[in-house]
Amino acid sequence: MATEGQAPAVDAHAHVFTRAMPFAADAHSRPDYDYGVDAWLADLDRYGIAHGVIAAASLFDDGNAYTLAALAADPRRLRGTVIVPPETDAETLRAMADLGVVGVRLAWRRVDELPDLKSDPWRGFLRRIADSGLHVELLSRSVSLPHLLPALDATGVDLVIDHFGVPARDPMERHAATDALCRAIDRGRTWVKLSAGFRMPFEIAAEVTGRLLAHAGAQRLLWGSDAPFVNHEGDTRFADTIVLYRRLVPDPAMRAAIDRTALALFFDKESSA
Questions:
Q1: Domain Amidohydrolase-related, which positions (predicted)?
Q2: SS (H, E, C) 63-122
C-alpha cells in the first residue's frame, strides 16, 4: 500500500488551478475541473507529506495570481515556481521570492525553436533570476539537453530539471540526454525531479533513475507527484505515484536522503549550497 513506510517529505512538483483561470491561447490541454490548493493539500495530508512545491503550469501561461495567493496563505508549507516573460525586472522577481517563489519555469517541451540564451532579453533575464536567488525549472525535450544544459549552466543560474529530463523512447537519444544530465550535475548547479514517471514506460523511468542514483546518489534528486495528472486523470491516483516512487527508489535510506535534498533546496536554501 502507498501508506506503508515513510512518506515523502516534499512533493516537489504539482499543479494547482481552477476552472476560473484563463487558459493560454496555445494550451495543449484544457482540464474541465478544479484542482485547487486545498485539494492538493488534502492529498498531501492523506499521505503524510509535509511540504509541497507548486509547478507553474504552461496551460495558464504567465497567470501566477492563484499560485502567489496560495503561497501567501501557507508560507511555512508551500513553495512555488512561476512563468514570467523574459522582460521581467529584478524587483518583480525579488518580490515573488519574498512570497515563497523559488524558481522560474521555462516550459519548452513543445517549443520548436529555442531562444538564443547569449542574447537579450534572455541573457539579462537569466542573470536576474540567479541574482534573485531563484532557479530555472526546465521542462524540455531530451533531444535538447546536450546543448541546452551547458548553455543554461554558463549563465550561473541553478537548474531543476522536470520529469527525469523527459527521456525519449529512442535509446540513443535517451542515453545522450542522461549523459548530459550527469554532466550538468557534476558542474554543481543542477537537480533532477523524479516526477511524472507514469507518463513513460516503467523500464525507461527505472533506467534513468538508476543511472542518476549511481552517478550522483540522492544529493541531486527530488520527487514529485505531478498531481493532478493532467491527461492521465482516469488511470492515475495520488497513491499510485508514491507506489511508483518506491519501486524506482526501493531503499528507504535513499528516499530519506532525497527528502533532505528537497528540504534543503526549497525550504532551507542556505543549507543546500
A1: 10-258
A2: CCHHHHHHHHHCCCCEEEEECCCCCCCHHHHHHHHHCCEEEEEEECCCCCCCCCCCCCCH
